[in-house]
Predict the 3D structure of the following.
Amino acid sequence: MSNMINQEEIETLRELIKDIDTAMLTTVTEEGLVSRPMKTQEVEFDGDLWFFTKKETAKYEEILHDQDVNVSYAGKSYVSVRGKAEIVEDLEKKKALWSKAYEEIMQTSYDDPNVVLIKVKAEAAEYWETGNFTKKAAFLFKRMTGQNSKSTDINETVEMNK
């Protein structure tokens, strides 16, 4: 059984998170876990999630110390994405993802050297929803991962890569 993320799994997760404007990013600190709201990037999910931050924030330091993160979404569905975060300072990528909303939120521009991107490479996702779409996706994920499709779990976990 392959644990690599495939295009159908990416499409399902994209569908589940596409209209959710704010995600909760959880990082690891010396004291434990810390979560904070982050504006979701308006880009097509391809297995990576992107967020803007500044270098003088706690989350920046936390990611430099420990790359394990979780990103959760709550809307018409509930999605929890586990992954590895990295800090990206690529000016062209910042320019491509920047919007007027960030200018207002961060009180600066994309070319500010203090502005960085957090790239989260998704490793696994878990989701909850009772709608027909998610039931269909749950069946699909179980079939792809070789799990019994007759299970009545209320949530699904998908290992995306290892």
Observations:
- The beta strands are 22-28, 33-39, 48-54, 68-74, 78-88, 115-128, 156-159.
- The chain is about 30% helix and 35% strand.
- The longest strand covers residues 115-128.
- The chain has one domain: 7-159.
